[in-house]
Write a structure and sequence with these properties.
Radius of gyration: 22 Å
Bound molecules: 6-O-phosphono-beta-D-fructofuranose
Strand content: 15-25%
Strand order of the largest sheet: 1-6-7-5-2-8-9-10-11
Distance between the termini: 42 Å
Structural class: alpha/beta
Helix content: 40-55%
Length: 469
Amino acid sequence: VGSGVRMPTTGPVTLAVASNRGPVSFDRDQSGALVARRAGGGLASILGPGVEKHGALWLASAVSDADRAAAKAGIVDAEGFRLRYLVTGADQYRMYYDAIANGTLWFLHHGLWDLPRQPLFDRPWWAAWDAYVKVNHTFAAVIADEVADGGTVLVQDYHLSLVCGELARLRPDLRTAFFAHTPFCSPAELRLVPDEVAQLILSGLAAAGACGFHTARWASAFDACCEERLGRVPTTFVSPAAPDGADVARVAGSDACAKELRHLDSQVGDRRLIARVDRIELSKNLFRGFAAFDDLLEQRAPLRGEVVFAALEYPSREGLAEYRAYRRDVESAVKAINDKWATAEWTPIILDTTDNYARSVAALRRYDVLLVNPVRDGLNLVAKEGPLVNERDGVVALSRGAGVWDEIGDHAIEVHPFDVVGTSDALGTALDLSARDRSIRSAALRRAAVSRTPIDWFDEVLAAARTPD
Ligand code: F6P
């Protein structure tokens, strides 16, 4: 084990969190030693501050070969976290993560299925489901082994839907809470999956001491599914995650971000900027966003040459054919729009698919309009991060399908995620707002964004955890 990775010094585990992706990923340096790197992604920034404050043990899947090698050391300290990585064989991991967690449950909870073709529960699917059950049971067994009597476990997300059920069997003394960072499907959508699967998922979640959601909408959907299938409504709570203001401000103030902002400025000039920052993800609704921008240029000739759309989109889940195809389709849609409108001086859409956080934050500092138009999303933290660092009284054009709509919708311009003409109008309205309107709205968005911290969120989840009924 190399630099940045230490064996732990602390004693019994009284608090653990479990998630598929951990807050740290491992790599090899030139000498072959393992080095830890803080992982990007929403979960690390939502959970990280609370985990550090409480010194919790973080259990996660080993995703890369270097993670698997680090996992051999058992519990390690890295980047301020006390970690234990669980090793799953590569094939089993693909079945659990690609086929079930992302290929099935993600589509279910975000309403993404193309129903004439999907879902399709064939024999390979059922083999993958077995792998999902096994990985969930392994997580539960390791937690049961690590956590001291009467300890607390906070389980995160749809990858681990069955963990609390198994833990209630293995260790009924533990206080548990499950937190869903996604939306939750409706009872009608849940009827699309085989009864046995729906039943296992709901009973697995309902076996947690409490189930948490970012908004009351997803909690009600979960309640309705439980009412229909289990005939009872488990304990739920609502606790919207908050941005890590100190961390976003640190990146915004960094030299790397200043350099990226200069680069962006050289591309945008004194034009106005519409920006979006996401993973290349089917639920983020990239297509309709670009189609709406195309419509805006079509309808409002004076905007041609005067507005740039910067889309900072980093690749995600490329093990799934649907995601690879989506990326190709997004790239060709952008090319078609640029071919249609570009001039020698102006490229209408800048599509950047590099994973460069400083560049994304530079776009958040510079936007006039931030487009956040998911078809459905658990929260969509970027809609709160943007206003924290934006320097131009930027406006947020926000889908009501995002969980964060319930918190900040009053200060945003509303987007119906499926209505391309409506989205085009929303972008136009956002660009037309008076300076006074923009300043009132952006001040309200900033107030909402600082009103909670990641520690508030973590402590609420911790307070909700209890021994199962
Ligand atoms: O939104 C759900 C979520 O699991 C987040 O917690 C996470 O940041 C994101 O999806 C990315 O997922 P993955 O681990 O598949 O890259």
